[in-house]
Every structure is written in structure tokens, then in C-alpha cells.
Design brief:
The protein has about 230 residues and is α/β, with parallel strands linked by helices. It has a domain at about 10-15 and about 30-185: Decaprenyl diphosphate synthase-like (Undecaprenyl pyrophosphate synthetase). The chain has helices at about 20-25, 30-50, 70-95, 110-120, 140-150, 160-165, 210-225; strands at about 10-15, 55-65, 100, 130-135, 175-180, 200. It binds farnesyl diphosphate (FPP).
């Protein structure tokens, strides 16, 4: 498959990893098997982004709304997160990936919080792909938390820079490309502020089937877009 020229590569790719449940159902498997299979896709996409020289990759792994799922599924997802961080550390180190997390992290299971801290620290000196998991995250919550911080600081006025400086990770640039798997045409409370000018690539492929070839197709799609940021170009 042809690969887009580097000049047209997105600096920051955000991904809504959807369709794990449908993938599992289609195979007569429990939903959690879809999530487990999704880890393979995470590895494939992280590796491909690192090799392609993408700057930032953010994966929406657990939303503030996902707590409403059955306890067994939530517990299994938390277990898979820990498994992911444990088993993927060598891949992250080999590919110079630094690992980060955004969201209301203090409400996550203590074991997950501990593993997050450890993985962030262990990859802190890596200078390649900046990988972020959005966990217990929603775009509205992030905006509210930033506004609350401004109020707590006694701010009398707010502008874009002041609000963005209080987001969970102010060093993240806005995503240039949002990929959503499994075909739904919505942003589902992800990066509401930051997606203002993002290009959207929605594929019918379920997340557990998503591989480097699908990422290349998204990059090709992106490279063909004309971005005008509200101007006339
Ligand atoms: C959406 O599929 C996916 C999730 C809610 C969780 C995402 C988790 C993973 C990809 C696995 C682990 C990830 C990491 C980073 C370790 P869905 O369950 O909503 O699918 P459905 O819409 O088909 O039911």
C-alpha cells in the first residue's frame, strides 16, 4: 500500500477503539474476549505509529460512562489494562515510546493507578511516540475540571489559553486526525474541545481487526484532505 509523504502526516492521532463487543458477538464469544483481542490492535497501532514517526497517539480506552457496564466487564477491563501495561513495556521501550494517561485517574482501581505511575516513570526518558491512554475520561468532564481549577484559582476571566493550560495534559497538541472504528458517526464525548479542527476517519472495521494496513488507509485519507481551519485556504 502506498504510504503518504511525511509532510502530510498528522502530528497527533486520536482513536475511538469501538466494536470490541460486536467483534466478540459475531464469533459467539463473551464481550471481554473482544477487549482482550483489542490489545493486539493496540500493539499493532502503537508500533506502526512509532515506526512512522507519528508524534502523539491518544487512545480512548475507558470513558466516564463505561462504569455503567456490568461489574464483571469493568473489572475485566481494569485487569486488561494492567496486563497491557505489564506485557507491553518491552515493546514501548524497544520503540522509544513514552507512556501517559489522561482522565479522572484518581477514581481508577488502586492497582491500575499504581501500574500507571510505574509505566509512566519507566518510559519517561523515551523520546519517540507520546502514547496517551484516556481513562475514566470524557471531554465534558475535562472542560469542567479545567473550569473548576480556574474558579479555585480565583480567575476573573478566561480565554482559550487559560482553559487549555488546565486540561489533564496541557502538553498535548490538538489531534489532527480522529479515527473511529466500527462505523458509528459520533465523537462520544471524546476530546470535545480539542477536536475542533480534526479530520475524521471512520472505518467499519471493528477494533480487534484493526491493523497497520487500516492505519495506513487512514493516513492516506488524511493526506488527501484540505485543511482550512475556518479560513479560505
Ligand atoms: C469499545 O468497544 C471499547 C471499549 C469500551 C474498551 C476499549 C478497550 C480495549 C481496546 C482493550 C484494552 C485496551 C488497552 C489500551 C489495554 P465496545 O465494547 O463498546 O464494543 P461494542 O460497541 O461493539 O459493544
Amino acid at each position: 500500500m502506498p504510504q503518504p509523504a511525511n509532510a502530510k502526516l498528522p502530528r497527533h492521532i486520536a482513536v475511538i477503539m469501538d466494536g470490541n463487543g460486536r467483534w466478540a458477538k459475531g464469533r459467539g464469544l463473551p464481550r471481554i474476549e473482544g477487549h482482550r483481542a483489542g490489545i493486539e490492535s493496540v500493539r499493532a497501532v502503537v508500533t506502526a505509529c512509532a515506526e512512522r514517526g507519528i508524534g502523539y497517539l491518544t487512545l480512548f480506552a475507558f470513558s466516564t460512562e463505561n462504569w455503567k457496564r456490568p461489574k464483571e466487564e469493568v473489572d475485566a477491563l481494569m485487569g486488561l489494562l494492567n496486563l497491557y501495561m505489564e506485557q507491553e513495556l518491552p515493546t514501548m521501550m524497544a520503540h522509544n515510546v513514552s507512556f501517559h494517561a489522561i482522565g479522572r485517574l484518581g477514581d481508577l482501581h488502586p492497582a491500575v493507578q499504581a501500574k500507571l505511575k510505574q509505566t509512566i516513570a519507566e518510559t519517561a526518558n523515551n523520546t519517540g511516540l507520546y502514547l496517551t491512554l484516556a481513562l475514566n475520561y470524557s471531554g465534558r468532564t475535562e472542560i469542567l475540571d479545567a473550569m473548576q481549577r480556574l474558579l479555585d484559582e480565583g480567575a476573573g476571566a478566561v480565554d482559550e489559553a487559560a482553559l487549555q493550560a488546565r486540561f489533564y495534559d496541557p502538553s498535548l497538541p490538538d489531534p489532527d486526525l480522529l479515527i473511529r472504528t466500527s462505523g458509528e458517526m459520533r465523537v462520544s464525548n471524546f476530546f470535545l474541545w480539542q477536536l475542533a479542527y480534526a479530520e475524521l476517519h471512520i472505518t467499519p472495521v471493528h477494533w480487534p481487526d484493526f491493523r497497520a494496513g487500516h492505519l495506513n488507509a487512514a493516513l492516506e485519507d488524511y493526506a488527501g484532505r484540505e485543511r482550512r481551519f475556518g479560513g479560505l485556504g
